[in-house]
Amino acid sequence: MARQARVSVATVSFVLNAAQRHRIRAKTQERVLAAVKQLGYSPNAAARNLAMGHSHILGVIVSDIRNPFFPEITAVFQETANLNDMEAIVMNSNYDAQRMKQSVNRLLALQVPGVAILTSQIESSVMDNLAERGICAVYLDLGRVDACISNIAVDYESGIIAALEHVRALGHERIGFIGGAPHLRSAQRRKRAFLAGAEKFKSLQTQAVDSNFSVQGGYVACSKLLSGLRPSAIIAANDLMAIGAMHAAYDRKVRIPGELSIVGFDDIRFAEHMLPPLTTVAVPRSDIGRIAFETLRTMISDPAKAGAEHHVHTHLVVRDSTAAMGGE
Amino acid sequence: MARQARVSVATVSFVLNAAQRHRIRAKTQERVLAAVKQLGYSPNAAARNLAMGHSHILGVIVSDIRNPFFPEITAVFQETANLNDMEAIVMNSNYDAQRMKQSVNRLLALQVPGVAILTSQIESSVMDNLAERGICAVYLDLGRVDACISNIAVDYESGIIAALEHVRALGHERIGFIGGAPHLRSAQRRKRAFLAGAEKFKSLQTQAVDSNFSVQGGYVACSKLLSGLRPSAIIAANDLMAIGAMHAAYDRKVRIPGELSIVGFDDIRFAEHMLPPLTTVAVPRSDIGRIAFETLRTMISDPAKAGAEHHVHTHLVVRDSTAAMGGE
DNA sequence: TTTGTCAGTTTAACCGTTTAAATTATTGGA
DNA sequence: TCCAATAATTTAAACGGTTAAACTGACAAA
User: Fold this and answer.
1) What is the three-class DSSP state of A226?
2) pLDDT over 90 at B148, yes or no
């Protein structure tokens, strides 16, 4: 080991750990730092991990990294973690409970001090497993807050309401809604918000169909809506379905936004790249990534304190896929 | 520790490592396995890592995880790694040499046995650093193959030629090309392939402009092409620029594919979701992910053997953004 | 001069595996 | 029955850090 600095291993350790640095003399610190630089030394993470009982790696589990919703979140999480001298390892549950369990087990073996679980569903046995072992966790929209358990609550409702108000203000009265997979809480909340919002305006005629958050599903759902008493505006519970809806309209030669206005949800990067650019509700994904990390860090550094509930807000981004009735 | 099985730690270790399992009696194995199950035991990765001198985590560095080109690769890499009892940690260089170095250092501290570097550029000092420490590496399109260094070569040329032949067969003679950032090898190769291919056909009039692989860049480049002697077909060196080009055409009311055919490159997921769906050259990203892992695994398990060069092929996917001259 | 105090540094135990080597148990042959 | 050979298991030394506790001077006060 780099004890070319003519000091003991302990001294090196003290120098390299900010918290202990004060204990040793400036001169000695210089010597150590010089040796570190000269040897290109970096401490063995495994040894440190073993000694400290936990690693500096945080786990992040998402349902589908291929879904453009997630990379932004994980990228910010990781960048923030790196700034704090930690690593992030991102795993994919692929919407599969079995894989979720496996991923958690992998993370446990890695001795992670905390985990961010950013999926729309999770078995409570997994949460319990984590809780029992004292691993801090932050969930997305799962509600529960406890010792070492935080939650990030996305305000879907105000986004949906904003979308509804927007198309209503443009003069649309017949409004369709394409919902996400109905067994997912987050899908239910968006749908309920839509229905509740629509109730307020007697003049509105609404029709809601459930789908599955995919482009394909949005296509089918939109086809269904268009073949009935045709709405002049459609709000989709995510951008992928909105894109599917745009395709369905395109294939039937229904002009957007001339004959049909479409609003998405999420504001994935490609929303603005659609033709026409998609009006959508932005979910602040980088905030989610940042908050997920920060709340984990807080809980890890002070495990006594209870977890917290964090709220993130959504807002409407108006682009060109919506227009006034009869307009274009 | 789980020595509730009334055996020594060594025995547990032997049972849990397939290679040594034969050494111990079936009865004893059962006892150990039962204890493992009962305690929900999983071996401490850090301790194992420390004892063995290297971890079971592989590093993957990409230039930009937000670019939809990469998540597919990393997801497959990770899935394959998991099937082989290894983890993958994905880092983002953000096209920044400094961050690349940092990422490599982080991975070194983690004692990774191998690294996949999937960026279009890398300083040779980084390659040397890795090589010196005996860390296996696989690069994307960086050419060098050596002890513990493999390379995945993407056959950009045949894809570009296929795209060119395709538009030529449709009757286009005035063909524009939007190139990627000219300092990147992979951009140069695509451009050169285009120019070389165009030479073969005397009748073709081509114009190539350089850009930067971004949607914005594609927009600007296409605007430039459209404002001169207007081409009837444009081939872009990646899909993002092709999408930018589609926007430029849309904003100028140039109809696609009626007045302008556009071909992209990569076949990112959103290519088929564009309106109209984008004709593009598919780069087999899941193959890249799989091969990157497999070649790393091979090199790691037998470090004596030299690295290998792997080729992956591209192929044209014809959709609706290209059509015969004067058609639609 | 002795003693106490304190800053600076070192010692040594520990973290939980792997693995070579040592030990103990079992088996089969004389 | 005893012994050798072999099978099964245990022992103990790494691995490279962290950290409580011990140590070492230097200096100030008695």
Assistant:
1) helix
2) yes
Question: Does the nearest atom of strand D lie within 7 Å of B8's Cβ?
Answer: yes
pLDDT tens by residue, B272-294: 999 999 999 999 999 999 999 99
Q: Distances in Å between the alpha carbon of A75 and those of A2, B60, B64, B178?
A: 34, 14, 9, 29
Specify the pTM: 0.94
Tell me if B236 sits within 8 A of B265, measured CB to CB: yes
Beta carbons of A301 and A84 less than 8 angstroms apart: no
Mutation to test the A interface, candidates B39, B270, B286, most A Cβ within 10 Å: B270
Residues of B in contact with A109 (CB under 8 A): 42-45
What digits encode the pLDDT tens for the residues A229-243? 999 999 999 999 999
List, as ranges, residues 77-136 from B with C-beta within 8 Å of A: 78-79, 82, 87-92, 102, 105-106, 108-111, 129
Q: How many residues does chain A have?
A: 328
* Span A170-185, pLDDT tens digits: 999 999 999 999 999 8
Which of the nucleotides lies closest to A48 (Cα–C1')? D17
Strand-strand pairing, A315-317 and A279-282: antiparallel
What pLDDT sits at residue B64?
Answer: 92
Q: Which of A54, A76, A82 would you mutate first to test chain B, the one with the most B CBs within 10 A?
A: A82
Residue A96 in tokens: 């599969």
- Tokens linked to A115: 């985990």
